[in-house]
Amino acid sequence: MTKTKGGLLSFNNFLSTSKNRNISINFAQQAATNPDLVGILFVMSVNSTYSTTPFAAVTDVSYFHTEDEVLFSMHTIFRIGDIKSMDGNNQLYQVNLSLTNDNDQDLRALTDQIREETFPNSRGWYRLGQLLFKMAQFNKAQEIYEVLLLQATNESEKAPIYHRLGSLKDDQGEYPEALTYYERSLAIYEKTLPSNHLNLGHIYNDIGAVYYNMGDYPEALSYYEKDLVISQQSLPSNHRNLGASYYNIGMVYYSMGDYSKALSYYEKALAIQQQSLPSNHPDLGASYNNIGMVYYNMGDYPKALSYYEKDLTILQQSLPSNHPRLALSYNNIGLVYEYMGNYSKAHSFYERAVQITQQSLPTNHPNFKICRENVERTKKKL
Question: Which regions does the record annotate with the repeat TPR (predicted)?
């Protein structure tokens, strides 16, 4: 919480408070007696003139009449103020909070962003299903979609629901079940939509992804190519989704060991991303990394190094310094230097990868083991 001073704090249930400081501090002190817990006394400042957040004094109706209780509504949001230790042992803290007002710009920006990310174009139960899916509440989302299937009055209404059920199974790694749902959706779309409709492209893409995850690369390529044809016909030449279509085909060719074709499609995807994304966007870094991997496997180490370094520059700008993706980038650069015979630089980059994995991954994680082995191997070559 000390790292979010000045930020926002939401209580996601009804919040029981007291106007009697002694009662509140008694609860905080009880938590502080447990060495695994920290007691916090929240001191709240409320100006009801500028906020419509529901709260009420409930002493007259509370079971505990002596607690001088004030009850706040669910999801009440406060701004975090000063934070200070109360006991000198870092077991008991006072945190000052102020109730946000209706014109708080940060809260408004956050609310607008959440609204944008929670499927504003969907309605009712369908939107709830998408939200549960995004929260990885797969079983609950499936229940919602199965109810929607029963309520559907025609095949056109069922197609997007089958599609969502396929996505649920896909994300859970249940690929045969995902294919069953996707194919039901596809059968309806092929009967009811024009041959260049983007929804057809989306279902071709998703079926291709399932086959890719199952290791059936020729079948994956077939569906990804169908998606690409529709994207080329229906989207602007610099649209991000068109770039994603090129990227997916490049990924299949890479997995099949056809590096020249993989490079061609990765470069087309990169060209679109360079037009449509900020220069420090992580997706742009991922494309640089993939092209670097192609050149690495083709034995062109200078070009591989160039693209790996572009990836690293973006990651250093856009990710926390201990992010596992940064460790991967340092490790890739280390591999190139090792194959170029520059063992000193290889060892240096491998060590940076180890430092990050030590902070961000458990010691039994396979990536941690790989980074350690790389360090030990190059150390012997110095």
Answer: 159-192, 201-234, 243-276, 285-318, 327-360
Give dist(CA 305, CA 327) in Å, integer.
Answer: 15
CB 213 within 8 A of CB 201: no
Query: Pick from 353, 356, 368: which is nearest to 323 by CA?
Result: 356
> Distance between CA 289 and CA 368 in Å, rounded?
20
DSSP annotation of 323 reads: -
Asked if residue 87 belongs to a domain, the reply is yes
Cβ(210)–Cβ(172) below 8 Å = no
Contacts of 130 (CB under 8 A, 6+ apart): 118, 119, 122, 141, 164
The answer to whether the beta carbons of residues 40 and 87 sit under 8 Å apart is: no
C-alpha–C-alpha distance, residues 236 and 234, integer Å: 7
Domain that holds residue 62: 2-115
Residue with tokens 């961000």: 360
What pTM was estimated for this model as a whole? 0.71
Distance CA(316)–CA(309), nearest Å, equals 10
The domain boundary residue, chosen from 226, 257, 272:
272
Whole-Å CA distances, 86 to 35, 91, 93: 16, 8, 5
Per the structure, how many domains does the chain have? 4
91, 115, 139 — which closes off a domain?
115
104-139 tens-digit pLDDT: 888 888 777 767 766 677 777 878 888 888 888 889
The answer as to whether 199 is a domain residue is no
DSSP state letter for 97 = E
Whether the CB-CB separation of 371 and 331 falls below 8 Å is answered with yes
